[in-house]
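Self-study notes.
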Amino acid sequence: MTKVIASGKTVEDAVNQGLAELGVSRDKVEIQVLEQPSKGFLGLIGVKAAKVEVKLLSVPEPVPQPIKPAAQVPQVEATLEGVAAKNPYEEAAAFLKEVAAGMGLDVEVHIKKQRDGHIFNIAGEDLGMIIGRRGQTLDALQYLTNIVANRYSESFVRIVLDAENFRQRRRKTLEDLAERLAGQAIRTGKEVVLEPMPPLERKVIHAKLQNHSQIKTYSKGEEPNRRVVITTK
């Protein structure tokens, strides 16, 4: 209902009646007086009520607003455990420094990239504690360092740990040992069984003697007690 015709003793009464029927306030309507009230003869006979038309004002339709495209949400790089992705080599180096600090050592870690992995060279004083007997501590730290690095990498990474060029010096020691024991096997005609070694050290022995004309090598036993055997062909 947009308009009504209302009546009352006065124009004001008629308007109020119309407003009540439409249920709106006065500022929402347009009012047209159709008939003025009259009192009639001697104010008693032929009394005519006021009549008005109360019409709702037209409400302009809202102008459609252009729809704004949704705000672009910046893409966040995938993370590990809700933390921004970290460099596996930096995390591994930080781990090494923390372990060294726990041993009372202040060290630096120099990272060198190679074709088949990365070499971490540890520099500092009193590194014998980090190297350990025949490199056993260094090997253990290398194992843990690789675990830490691979926690922060989507693809497998390989780190070789070194300190004071221990790996190179140890390799030279093992190669000299291989040649000496090969000579012993030739002289005695008996096979020589070496003490248990980690895989990388056994590999050095095998590689040194693989092209020997009189000697062959193989490994026997189970880790961590696997040994190299040097024997004549």
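Second protein, same conventions, sequence then structure:
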Amino acid sequence: MEVVVYGALSTIWWMSYSNCCLCFYLNIKLFPSKWFSFIFMRCLGPLFNPRLTPLRKRAFDILNEHLADRKKNLPLDILEIGIGGGANLQFYPQNANLTALDMNATFETYFKENQKKYPQITYKKTVTAMAENMEEIADASMDVVVCTFVLCSVQNIQSVLSEVRRVLRPGGKFLFLEHVAFPHDQWSFTIQRFVAPLWHLYFDGCFPDRDIAEEIRKNGFSSVVCENK
């Protein structure tokens, strides 16, 4: 009986998935990235920001702890990957020179609106590119690279991390904040794996079951400080 129920549920699930794939594919063709940026900024942002803001603040507190020896009057060149609408700007250190990078150019309008609230940040430019190939960013040109809730949806984590190491100056800092996979021996991870196909489809390529912290640890950074919340 359990086999029949499981088979029926699996069939319904994957039939629904296939239908959703077709519908979403058509939507993407008609309304490409603009659809996602609007939903993200006007719907998902207000819904999730109350919970995410304390996490963002804690991440930048850790960054500031590792910048404690920096002279406050010296400029700090920062590259933020996947900046979106600029949710992290409120936590930026003093004298920050910002280069923004995002593959979705339709976030630009929302970012520019938000940027006006933080005149203490010197905005340099926006680069529209994928994080796997940031060729417009020069080697060893950044003091800090910021990446929050982005590595879950990139096509190749190793390529992104290699690019991060390339653009960082010696002694530079990589600040990351991600939602990651649960331990593999927990039911929560099984649920993540089960919903991953539809989640990936509806949330702009996000994979909820990636072990991002481990990917960063094995990529050659001199030290990795990681807190789990």
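Instructor comment on the second fold: The longest strand covers residues 168-177.
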